[in-house]
Design goal:
GTP-binding; 287 residues; 5-stranded parallel β-sheet; P-loop_NTPase; nucleotide-binding; GTP binding; 11 strands; ATP-binding; 4-stranded parallel β-sheet
């Protein structure tokens, strides 16, 4: 059975993700207590259900520590199990809760100080939730939805569905430093020192996917030296990530606006690994 476990920080897009998976033919279950996971999978398998998506979050905090062992048992039983984790910056999450006027799931728990019980603030709830879910995030494919539209998130979830379960999925992601480093990045490379096509008025409206920008950067010795250095680094260390049983590795490459240099570098590096690795590609500022 193809099993996708969805988890993440409240407000980061789990509902949108479940809707995408349901539309793709997955049997979807929201907020399942982890202790019920083996029983649910056995029931669905008996009913010949071949695809299921199950959301788990911090509301089952005291049970989440059992998830890694349960996932391993399901894989040993022949099931394909993948974990998708959604996150976003605290500032973005606070704004979303403010817009929807919904309370955080952990806000109903009580924090204890030396004198009395006090309700946690929204920011405290978010930070506590990050700690609760850290063990799940460590083995998951992570999507940072901080600056994503719902449509872009739907697109990236659909791409995740299509990838096969292999020892390592390599993700290349371009981003804009002026918007902050993506939370889903494992390795971050800064290419802002490369000459910027933005200052050429003919190239400014284009992107790193367009031929005039590609030609401009192909002719920059610094850009080619940076490309070769990053390529050599990845070729040397990807085997070590595989040996460490990593399922996903996100390589984030940033420039100032996320439009020219980082996009160019991501596209160029992706071509080098397409024949040897399972590769995904994202451009955060081109959506």
């Amino acid at each position: 059975m193809d099993v996708i476990l969805i988890s993440g920080i409240s407000g980061s897009g789990k509902s949108v993700t479940l809707n995408v998976l349901e539309d793709a033919g997955y049997f979807c279950v929201d907020n399942l207590p982890p202790s019920l996971l083996p029983e649910l999978i056995a029931t669905l398998e008996h009913e010949a259900q071949m695809k299921t998506a199950i959301a788990m979050d911090s509301r089952s905090a005291h049970l989440l520590t059992t998830v890694p062992a349960t996932v391993e048992k399901l894989r040993q039983a022949g099931h394909t199990v993948r974990i998708l984790f959604l996150t976003a910056s605290t500032e973005s999450l606070v704004a979303r809760f403010s817009e929807t006027r919904r309370s955080h799931p952990l806000s109903h728990r009580m924090g204890i100080d030396a004198h009395a019980s006090i309700h946690l603030t929204l920011t405290e709830c978010i930070e506590e939730e990050r700690e609760i879910l850290a063990s799940i995030q460590a083995s998951a494919h992570v999507i940072d939805t901080t600056d994503l539209s719902a449509n872009q998130l739907r697109k990236w979830v659909k791409e995740f569905i299509r990838i096969e379960h292999v020892p390592l999925t390599l993700m290349f992601e371009s981003f804009a430093f002026k918007r902050g480093v993506p939370l889903d990045a494992d390795l971050v490379f800064d290419v802002r020192m490369i000459p910027n096509p933005h200052y050429d008025l003919a190239l400014r409206p284009l992107t790193g996917r367009d031929e005039p920008v590609i030609e401009f950067l192909d002719n920059q010795p610094m850009a080619q030296e940076m490309y070769q250095d990053i390529l050599a680094f990845l070729r040397k260390w990807i085997p070590a990530f595989k040996a460490d049983n990593r399922s996903y590795l996100t390589v984030a490459i940033g420039c100032t606006g996320g439009q020219h240099r980082s996009v160019y570098m991501v596209e160029k590096l992706t071509q080098q690994f397409l024949t040897t690795e399972q590769v995904l590609i994202r451009h955060r500022r081109l959506h």
